[in-house]
Amino acid sequence: METLMENEVFRAFTTYAAIVILKMLLMAPLTAYYRITRGAFSNDEDVAMKATEERKKLLRTHPDVERVRRCHQNDIENVIPFVGLALLYTLTGPELSTALLHFRIFAGSRICHTISYVCALPQPCRGLSWMVGILTTFSMAYRVLSTVLLI
């Protein structure tokens, strides 16, 4: 483990993997905040202590809540594959500067994606930030496959 932590590329990977995973995890409290402040809950047990009429009003969807929830889902669909591929990419021995470029671009694209999603910025903001992140992940996948392909 010590030799792994001496590897600068692996340390860069752990840094940026932690950043994007933490950003993804922070989406759950943000969703809860939006649910509470918008009074829009999705489960009966969330409003069980309320009167029957109030429960009916609170069990509803709200566009702001749905936007944050979809952003969180999009994080799950993109961050988890990035972390797995970035780990494999790290094991191929890339140059530190190239690895940092991949990791920074992906992290920046996910942060921009979240801002554009939550703040409802006009397209193509969200689409472009998603595309940059996915292309970065594909670039790492290409490196992994071209380095170790055994078919």
TrEMBL record:
Its EC number is 2.5.1.18. The chain crosses the membrane at residues 12-34. It is a multi-pass membrane protein. Pfam families: MAPEG. Keywords: Acetylation, Endoplasmic reticulum, Membrane, Mitochondrion, Mitochondrion outer membrane, Transferase, Transmembrane, Transmembrane helix. GO terms for molecular function: glutathione transferase activity. It catalyses: RX + glutathione = an S-substituted glutathione + a halide anion + H(+). GO terms for cellular component: endoplasmic reticulum membrane; mitochondrial outer membrane. Belongs to the MAPEG family. Homotrimer; The trimer binds only one molecule of glutathione. Conjugation of reduced glutathione to a wide number of exogenous and endogenous hydrophobic electrophiles. This is Microsomal glutathione S-transferase 1. It comes from Cottoperca gobio (Frogmouth).
